[in-house]
Fold this sequence. Notes:
- This protein is mostly helical and 207 residues long.
- Helix content is 70%, strand content 0%.
Amino acid sequence: FMRNSLFISIIAVIGQMFSSSFVAYGFSRIDFKGRDLLFILVLATMMIPMEVTLIPLFAIYKSLGWIDTFLPLIVPHFTAGAFNVFLMRQYMLTLPKELDESAEIDGCGPIGRYFHIILPNSIPVLIVVAIFTFVYTWQDIMGPLVYLDNPAYRTVTLGLEYFRSPYVDNRHLLMTGAVLAMLPVAVLFIFLQKYIMSGIATTGLKG
C-alpha cells in the first residue's frame, strides 16, 4: 500500500509541476487575445464540486478501460490544476520582464525562456506545488475507493480500512498504521517547510 501511494504521488507531483507551470507560463508571460477571459474560465473550474464530475469521469475511464488501474489517479494531474496554475501565474508575474527581453535578444524562443529563465527562477513555488500535490494524492481516499478494485493496487488510505472490524478491537493496529502513513508527509513538510512561505511571498528574483 505504501509503495502504491508513493508511486501515484510521485508521478502526480511530476505531472502537476510540469503541466501547471507550462500553463501558468502562458498566462503570465505570453500576450494573446482572450488571455484574461480564458484565465477566469480556468479559475471558475474550482467552483465545480468533485461530486458533480465523479460519475461522468467514471463513465469515461470505464470506456477507456482504465478502471482498476492507476491511470485515473495519475493522468488528470498532467492536465494542470486551476489552483496550481493560479499560484504559479501570480509568482511568475513577479519575475522582471527584462529577463525575457534579455533572453529574446540572445535568440532564446518562448520554449527556451520557459526552460532556461522561468523554471530556474520559480523553484520555490514549484516546491510548494509539489508539497500540495503530494499531500493531496497521498491522503486521497475517494479516488482510490472509486477506481481501484484489486486489493494489490490499493493505497495507504484504503489499506487502513483493513484494520477496522466490528468484531475485533484493532485500534492499536489502526493507530500504528495511521502513524506510519503520516510519516512521509511529515518528513516532506519538515524538510521543505521553508519553501512554503518563500514560494508564496517572495518576488522570485534570484541574485
